[in-house]
Amino acid sequence: MQTFFTPAQRADPALAESEAILRRCVHCGFCTATCPTYVTLGNELDSPRGRIYLIKDMLENDRPATAEVVTHLDRCLSCLACTTTCPSGVDYMHLIDHARMHVEKTYARPLPDRAIRALLARILPYPARFRLALSLARIGRPLAPLFERIAPLRPLAAMLRLAPKGRPAAAPSDVSAKPLASSAAGSKRAIPYGNSTPASLSAAGAEAAPPARRVAILRGCAQRVLDPGIDAAARRLLSRLGIALVDVPGEGCCGALVHHMGREEEALGFARRNVDLWTARIAAGGLDAILVTTSGCGTTLKDYGHMLKRDPAYAEKAARVSALARDITEYLAECDLPALPARGLTVAYHAACSLQHWQKVTLAPKRLLAAAGFSVREPAEGHLCCGSAGTYNILQPEISAALQARKVSNIEATRADLVCAGNIGCLTQIGAATSLPVVHTVELLDWAYGGPVPARLAASARFAAAE
Amino acid sequence: MSNATSHAAEGPGCAPIAFLPPRPDVLARRDEIMAALTELVSAGGVVRAPLALKPFETDAFVAYRQPPLAVVLPQTTAEVSAVLAYCHSARVPVVARGAGTSLSGGAIPQADAVVLGLSRMNRILEIDLENRTARVEAGVTNLSISEKVAAQGFFYAPDPSSQLACTIGGNIAMNSGGAHCLKYGVTTNNLLGVTLVLIDGTVVTLGGKHLDAGGYDLLGLVCGAEGQLGVVTEAVVRLIARPEGARPVLFGFDSSEEAGACVADIIAAGIIPVAIEFMDRPAIAICEAFAKAGYPLDVAALLIVEVEGAEAEMAAMLAEIVTIARRHGVRTVRESQSATEAALIWKGRKSAFGATGRIADYICMDGTVPLSQLPYVLKRTGEICAGFGLEVANVFHAGDGNMHPLILFNANDPAEAAKAEAAGNEILKLCVEAGGCLTGEHGVGLEKRDLMRFQYSEAELAQQMAVRAAFDPLWLLNPSKVFPLEGRPA
Amino acid sequence: MTLPSMSSPSMISPAMILHAPRSEAEVVEIVRGALAGATPLALQGGGTRAGFGHAVAAEAGLSTSALSGILRYTPGEMVMTALAGTPLEEVEAALAGQGQRLAFEPADHRPAMGTQGVPTIGGVFAANVSGPRRIAGGAARDSLLGIRFVNGRGEALSAGGRVMKNVTGLDLVKLMAGSYGTLGLMTEVTFRVLPQPERVETLVFSGLEDQAAAELMAAAMALPADVSGAAHLPESVRGRFLAGALPEGAATLLRLEGHAASVAIRAETLTRALGARAPLQRLGPEQSESLWRAVRDIHPYAEDGTQRPLWRVSVAPMAGPGLVAALRMEAGVDAFYDWQGGLVWLRMEAEPEAALLRGLIAKAGGGHATLLRANPAARAAIPAFEPQPAPLAALAARVKASLDPHGLFNPGRMG
Ligand SMILES: Cc1cc2nc3c(=O)[nH]c(=O)nc-3n(C[C@H](O)[C@H](O)[C@H](O)COP(=O)(O)OP(=O)(O)OC[C@H]3O[C@@H](n4cnc5c(N)ncnc54)[C@H](O)[C@@H]3O)c2cc1C
Ligand SMILES: Cc1cc2nc3c(=O)[nH]c(=O)nc-3n(C[C@H](O)[C@H](O)[C@H](O)COP(=O)(O)OP(=O)(O)OC[C@H]3O[C@@H](n4cnc5c(N)ncnc54)[C@H](O)[C@@H]3O)c2cc1C
Ligand code: SF4
Ligand code: SF4
């Protein structure tokens, strides 16, 4: 599209970048069709094309954000379904990032909104605080209906409802790394390796020491608190594959949560801190990959290079870190895991937006699951977000609930035995609305390749029996 | 805000297309009109803030823009009727809007108009497989109908490349076509009935699940009328059983003319594949970059020919087509080997216009010519664009002669934009002279309005306008479109 | 549209002046003359359906009989342009010569309607008449690409063109098709044609009740078999086809056309899916040809020596059998079905029972009934075309006025 920026505006690199993004958009409208908020609300203003237009107008005129514009930008889930759809390659993510910063700078949010955002930004990225908050939330849950009735407090109600009912499952104590081959042989499901035993697995068996691969797993923040079992599963599986796990003490929240609220400086703070830690680790002895089991965080990690590219002190380091970031399934897909016989379980695979639309990791999880003997079903409207989207389910509870219901009904229509996904946000959001067990992809893979039955499945008599 | 924006025409080119001057009395009553509309539709159904109106100022014919007076988003036929009745009594122009994917500016508002958006009316109301019909609200997207019945082995045949996004209401208004219309016909051939709200709020039903409704074929008249006769709120469309198999095949040629001649010969041989799509070298490169469909990059022109039916049937038809293609010196023939590959081939083709945005801005022409004229018109199109110093990419529905030259330009360069428009006009004139028409499926809209006299005499235009006036005597429905502004009835 | 009753059964009485212009210019002159003298005109092609519908209160006739001849036929583009008065037979012969044909299979209704004359291509489009292939190949209006016509102001105009796809301006072509000469006289028509198939075959399922037959036809249309004709002939009419050679019991027909190998495959598909439902027989090209011609031309009720009322009813395909069953409870009726059950040819034993029939159609989900044949008294009393709801009738009247403001053409025919 035609744009209207002045030469002075173009001199600002951030604006110049946004202009280049805008210039690519041909206003064809394809993206509207796959946008969860447009599909739900039916208003151009709640569509990617509408938002692009609002942003364009705001940036071109260097206009402070207005309440109306903020409303529609806030409703964006950052799911990036629009980006997958866009034939023209419009980089919506970096445009909306820019817009959110502009909003943060130029718009005074009403007090309750500001308070809730500040609260979230102060709690979620910090595991200790988050753990405490969850305990309080369990106590506070009866207040939810009350908050529900007071519009500005609705996000609080949503928060309370989201807190898991039970205590988060503690990480199984057995984190020890049994070599995969022996553990598999000992289990009831013998794995037919035949002659095609992959090098990585036989090596893990003992004798020949493999060229050690060293990976770190992002420990992150919220997931650690909500479900430590996921990382534990990933660690077990990797260890069994003979991959060395490297600890990076001090590493913390990736910054995504605040980044998507437009709190740029805070986000960059998290990013710089992590970049420093990993860079040190790389210098200290090499790192093949930084694995992420929460795809929402993985996306941010992969974007550090972009986020810090205008910081001369960090640009290069950040790019290196981003280049190492991999989703756990992306990495496992290259590990030659052996094919296992069918196990008579159907899994509805929910593609997290951060995986399918941001990182474009679409086939790896499904292939891994299929190879591990699960029969994979893909729910209809797989491109639509479940409504979790970071803090979205707290800040936009109505739209989030509509998407959650739509997602769950599509999932349940597959008549699968269980649901799996690669992102903690989705697991929580979907789990809250279905009676089907909801687990992380890596938990299923760990189970299939000799690990314990995932906690959420173990709770169900049916799967316990299957084990 | 009431000043229509468009690229200024300086240097070689043509004058920008004018909007009807807004009626000052309507502009003056803006607040009153807003208040009235708010009463007529359910919550959240009126967009009023000036900044929020901007995103409605254009459609996919993005060179022209004009924010409306207001936008209303009704949810039922009754709400549409109430809005129209009000606008009629208050003498406020109305522009219906589906998904805003029109390439001719059909959904571009005018300063004194209320945009009536159908996007909140997006329910599929009834699927009746025994009678092979679907009843849907006007805001339902084209593709979602096919998706809804795919598991049962059916589909809705007209498949505009924009089918992911465009609405059935927009399709009816534009009588949209698509790649597979060569065999299955365009919208009008697959439409059985509509619920139409007239400008005074009267609701009429045309057709239904039965064929060929009695009386005048008003259904046929409304289809393709570009929202000039009324607002469609519901439609009954025909569903078709999905063929046993379908296979797109790529044929690469050394020249556009050879490919064009091959198309004419395939049809002349009495072979009607489901689709024959054409792409020239620039278009191939653009689509391949997006879809990675495996289009050959070393040919000057590519035909995507799709055959369908049982295996033996496809093989037999393909053999005949290959023989003809050989006569035209075909260079590469590649059959898709899997459903995934076939899907990619179509994804590339259907994303062609959008993907063009990666390299340049474009305007898309839509003239149709008799098949025998294809090679000539292709050649002349290239010459015309070269004459203006512009690049052109051709990607179109060749089987029915419906050309889509994409004229590439830089929208931030007003002089070049004006040249692109001028080149487009030349090409459309060429299509008419070659025995064809200005538009095969995208509609006249704003874009080709002032070219209507190339194709029609004064009396013919007057007759069409008289028919239009039988539906909307006050000219309140989308009045800036289709008919040249001068020479309209007082 | 108001539908005033007719006063005389024939369209053009012998006493009338009958203009037969030889050129469009002459048509214009005649129409302008009529305009000046305020003398309405009865338009006619071959006059083969002259006995139908409402009498035209006109003092002069305007015939296309001298506007005859094929102007342009480009088989390679599958398009023909002909003067409106060109006999249908001539058009079909020219097409056959190139291995092509009309997609919509127009009928010859002379036997059923008891009329004479030579059907013209213009008349066929003016009545939008389509045969059994309607369900696969579209109606006449779907084949019509462009026209030249003279409106009620005496202006010669063109609409549409000769290309397959054209959305430039309002689609007056569709409007003129099926308007029975009430909006203007078409002088020239341009239409799309299709290649003739290599092979035609018919699957005949025997002994099915109407409802079961409708279900079978629906099931067939849901298969990837490209059925190009689906008709059901109840036992009462079965004997009137193929000189009684169809097997015992009602016959349900599915027609397949196309490439020989493809027809064989599709016949197999249908047999596999539906063969268990009823005894099945396959007919080759010759028998198919004559069988479908008879379905097309309403053969059972043609030359049946009666003036018994004949209705053409269009409803949703699955609604046909229910409608006939409901009608049978109250009146003597014989019927057979085309268009997968959606086109019902009804012959009433005594009175036309218009009100009853139309009431039942409305109950069955909508559709329309056209009275094709009846004795003069009945025809005088009954609107031949389905009456329309008031808002729609008013709209149609305004449309008519926009083309023929002085009510010059076929006054009274459609209203
Ligand atoms: C990338 C791209 C590819 C395309 N490919 C094709 C193609 O292959 N074939 C093709 O035919 N077109 C194509 N188009 C054009 C466009 O998609 C069609 O014209 C489509 O039918 C428009 O539908 P819409 O819902 O977007 O309507 P809009 O653009 O919103 O409106 C189009 C017109 O319809 C009117 N209208 C909309 N809804 C109603 C209603 N309910 N009642 C009355 N009037 C209404 C509007 O007033 C306007 O005049 C393409 C467009 C794009 C951007
Ligand atoms: C109610 C009805 C239903 C029919 N249904 C079918 C059917 O389903 N299938 C089928 O195959 N046949 C059908 N027919 C038969 C069909 O009408 C004739 O086959 C066809 O009209 C023959 O043309 P003609 O030249 O004899 O026309 P005519 O009998 O002379 O005229 C037919 C009508 O068209 C008008 N007309 C004729 N020529 C022109 C022209 N050039 N311009 C404008 N108007 C003109 C006349 O005024 C008249 O109203 C039906 C007929 C009727 C009355
Ligand atoms: S799909 Fe891409 S080019 Fe099209 S409107 Fe959306 S962002 Fe713009
Ligand atoms: S990121 Fe998701 S919610 Fe936001 S505009 Fe794109 S598709 Fe819509």
UniProtKB/TrEMBL annotation, chain A:
The lineage of its organism: Bacteria, Pseudomonadati, Pseudomonadota, Alphaproteobacteria, Hyphomicrobiales. It catalyses: glycolate + A = glyoxylate + AH2; (R)-lactate + A = pyruvate + AH2. Residues 16-44, 67-96 form the 4Fe-4S ferredoxin-type domain. It holds the Pfam family CCG. This is Glycolate oxidase iron-sulfur subunit. InterPro entries: 4Fe4S_Fe-S-bd (IPR017896), 4Fe4S_Fe_S_CS (IPR017900), Cys_rich_dom (IPR004017), Glc_ox_4Fe-4S (IPR012257), Helical_ferredxn (IPR009051). PANTHER family: GLYCOLATE OXIDASE IRON-SULFUR SUBUNIT. Its EC number is 1.1.99.14. Gene3D superfamilies: Alpha-helical ferredoxin. Component of a complex that catalyzes the oxidation of glycolate to glyoxylate. Binds 2 [4Fe-4S] clusters. One of its GO terms (molecular function) is 4 iron, 4 sulfur cluster binding. Its cofactor is [4Fe-4S] cluster. SUPFAM superfamilies: 4Fe-4S ferredoxins. Keywords: 4Fe-4S, Electron transport, Iron, Iron-sulfur, Metal-binding, Repeat, Transport.
TrEMBL record, chain B:
InterPro entries: FAD-bd_oxidored_4_C (IPR004113), FAD-bd_PCMH (IPR016166), FAD-bd_PCMH-like_sf (IPR036318), FAD-bd_PCMH_sub2 (IPR016169), FAD-linked_Oxase-like_C (IPR016164), FAD-linked_OxidoTrans_Type4 (IPR051914), Oxid_FAD_bind_N (IPR006094), Vanillyl_alc_oxidase_C-sub2 (IPR016171). Residues 64-242 form the FAD-binding PCMH-type domain. Pfam families: FAD-oxidase_C, FAD_binding_4. Its cofactor is FAD. GO terms for molecular function: FAD binding; oxidoreductase activity. Keywords: FAD, Flavoprotein, Oxidoreductase. This is Glycolate oxidase subunit GlcD.
